[in-house]
């Protein structure tokens, strides 16, 4: 994005480290010429918790809880990926029923995450009614998760070698009811988001990421798929129940759209994936075998086995935002892993933001930031400074600009 | 993608690749291909892999082995093939008196985040890395402290401090 910059007309605009559209702190420093973004510098790390470092001092079951807390929304994805890595290192095979329960919870998490996200996207564009409608629709899946796991977030379902709670017949019926609800409201979601003229005006050809850029910058998840890449861990190296259930990566072309790789395409992919997840859960319920749900019920025995284990393992999971990667190395006679590396989806998508901001307008910054569904915290503190460091714009102002642009395009 | 295709490509730059690799099957329907490579050949090997197709890159993991740092680059070849992925791990040992690697950013710009992270957390220098600022650590973090190291350059006075200097 190096361009000739006229120093007289150029502003530096820091957004973050704390920004209302983000779930974790990150700082974007935009170089702005008039309304045009000419460059961006991205600095994450404001909340680096040293989880991998902590993990080197705890046993593997304690680390499982740390892993789940890497992310508040992809929590079950991290717990599954960590379990898969440890299972691969220690040579543990979880019982088949556990694989299905893991997949059901993972897909429910995807529905909740995607609908949460479309709400945030609507808010960024200035449609707060749509935000409330989406989050009302999302409540059903939160109820389902609470019924199954006892919690709305942080489910503590997966454990090393299986899952901690079973899905009883009664719970299965509740899940089926929930799925019928989502089949009913799906068309409404499509209508509200994908056939809406105003959303198209704000999102089509905004925040473009070409297929070639997405590939070389290692974009993952809906961000990669919206640019036309068939990257989906459930499709390329199926794990847990996805080995039995066919998962095709969702591309914007599935909605009859040409693939542009813009913000609109990222909405298309996420909305279509809600439907896909509903069908995956239905198949899981139908094909779920009976049997045990844990490789070893006694945690002391499990820890003893893990302590004796020696080896290394990789766990890769398709979280709602993309590939979650865990690498674990175990040596005998040591409770903690000697190495633990976690890679989150936003880590992979960081670099992809740079081309997306190319030639964008200031009012398009919030939807573009939101469009990769960054998993980074949220408080209200955005400032735009002029060259002398005086505050000229705050979060409300930035949000107002975005709302105004929507109204302007609607011709109000 | 078959692991043989990748091994073949790598053998053109590393003729003794057969002695350096371990292939394992995984319950996650993908082969695990671990290749031990000399650090100075990293870029050649990645170039050979990228000659087949642009790989997916996940992360760099590492371990402090005492007198050397072991870094593992986790790639996935066949990253758009149905049930065809091969997780390819390039592993190298860097002696602590020569912690240097070639940057891959000109070939695969997406590796920048991981290289900046490895630089600050392990203290490995990347030749050709265009941006050498801290990324996940604070901007004013001391340049000679590397939190994942288990020697005198690691964190001091933290829980589980492995230097014993609390």
Provide structural commentary:
The complex is a heterodimer of chains A (412) and B (166). Chain A is of the alpha+beta class and 412 residues long. Chain A has helices at residues 51-55, 60-68, 75-90, 96-125, 128-149, 169-194, 197-203, 211-216, 221-226, 233-236, 263-287, 299-308, 345-349, 353-356, 365-371, 395-410, and strands at 10-15, 27-33, 36-43, 158-159, 162-163, 311-319, 322-330, 339-343, 383-385, 391-394. Chain A folds into two domains: 7-47 and 352-410, Enolase-like, domain 1 (2-Layer Sandwich), CATH 3.30.390; 51-347, Cytochrome-c3 Hydrogenase, chain B (Orthogonal Bundle), CATH 1.10.645. In chain A, the strands form four sheets. Chain A has a three-stranded antiparallel β-sheet, with no helix packed on it. In chain A, strands 6-7-8 form a three-stranded antiparallel β-sheet. A two-stranded antiparallel sheet of chain A has the order 4-5. The longest helix of chain A has 30 residues, at 96-125. The radius of gyration of chain A is 22 Å and the shape is globular. Chain B is an alpha/beta fold and 166 residues long. Chain B has a domain at 3-97: Beta Polymerase, domain 2 (2-Layer Sandwich), CATH 3.30.460. In chain B, the strands form two sheets. In chain B, strands 1-2-5-4-3 form a five-stranded mixed β-sheet, with helices on one face. In chain B, strands 6-7 form a two-stranded parallel sheet. The longest helix of chain B has 11 residues, at 42-52. The mean pLDDT of chain B is 90.
